[in-house]
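Supplementary Methods, section 5.1.

A reviewer requested that the exact input to the structure prediction be made available. We therefore reproduce it here, unchanged from the version used in the analyses.
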Amino acid sequence: MSWDEWASHDATALADRVRAGALTPAELAAQAAAAIAATNPTLSGVVELFEDAVADPRANGTNTEGPFAGVPYLMKDLGPTLKGRLQEMGSRLMRGNRAAADSYLAGRIRQAGLNIIGRSTTPEFGCCSSAENPEVYVTRNPWNTGYTTNGSSAGTAAMVSAGALPISHATDGGGSIRIPAGACGLVGLKPSRGVFSIAPHASDLTGLVSIQGCHTRSVRDTAAFVDACRGGAPGEFMPYWSAPEPYTRLIERDPPRLRIALSHEWGDHRAVPHFVAELERAGRLLESLGHHVDWAVPQVDFRAAFAAQTTCYISNFAQTVNNLITPLGLSRPPADKVEPINIRIWEEGLNTSFTERARMQAVFNTTSRGFGAFLEEWDIILTPITALPTPVIGTTEYLTTSSNPSVQDWFANLWRNFAYTPLSNLCGIPAISLPLGWQESGLPLGIQAQAAQARDGLLLQLAAQVERAIGGRWNDGRRPKVHVAGRG
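The structure derived from this sequence is encoded token-by-token as follows.
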């Protein structure tokens, strides 16, 4: 395929061509590998390419009869494990770490027909807004390489945006699917709690805020991924729910007239004026599609919610790090191999008491109830994906390489920028970033839509309606500066 032809195909279209006999899974893998070779030296979004999976997709365990028919796919170097493959989590400490078994979701991904051909970059342990440590790698934004992709699904965002492949793995504990999708011009859905399994090492009950997903360039690819990969492993601690009909069928119909709340004044946090104007512009588009659009703010204690979210991250993350260092025979994270903020988080969170966690859970409950009540009155909450512009490379205040002595202050600074994504993780509600706006820097600006729990299908319906209305031309049909088919 020519690069223009390759870039014009989403994963669904590539799979259709395989089923029609026009292409083979091996040919798809070879073209994706060539695309990565052309773009990765500039973007640094891929840690490793699996040559055996490129040469023979079926030998990699891919079910090429599945809905994606062998379409190439990158696994973020964090979360689901692949037996015998390296998983180094963006960390010098974990170099050489190989997984002993496939995770449950990895099996679902392969059964869906996605050929996992490599690992994409992530910040150390996923705890950061950018994959940006020069001692490991610096992942750059294809729209302007002087800027970050944001994180933590950094490499996935860079590679899908640059046209190297149409779909790739992402995870989201506070916005890590949606925020890089927003800065790179992609579709990024964080589904509701109880959709994707994180077995065998954790569950939605123990993880609380983290969830799996993907980046794509089309709504139908995201819908197909959820349809094919959802579901809990045997022995899950909580029920995993199913939709009444496949999302790939649901999105063929427009949603009913929706009540859409434009919102950005969340407690102490405000979006910059340009982002507010872009939010209003998106609102006008939705109004033109027949929806009711107005300004409204959920009635919750935002300060308490962000404080509880911080407690959750610090205490969860400290135990994650502890579980990594203990098998290595270490009593603490070594300063020469673990980034400073991650060490401080470990120090502060390791001895979090049950009483502190109980207080956190109480705020989780009241916050979820507050959003739940709001989403009885409104169908959709629409926000900018971030409150502040995407940082340039080298902005250390958001990085875990920061010298900030206070973990609490470091997190508070994150919330000033990433104000609109983490509370959907806290509440377990779905949220999607759609490439509908622009930043003054010329980077894309995602517009986020959130809905009530288990209304993931409604978000996808709305996204598909918008996609049809704009003729499929996300980002106004433009391409980033670094792209396999050249700049659009």
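The mean pLDDT is 97. These observations are discussed further in the main text.
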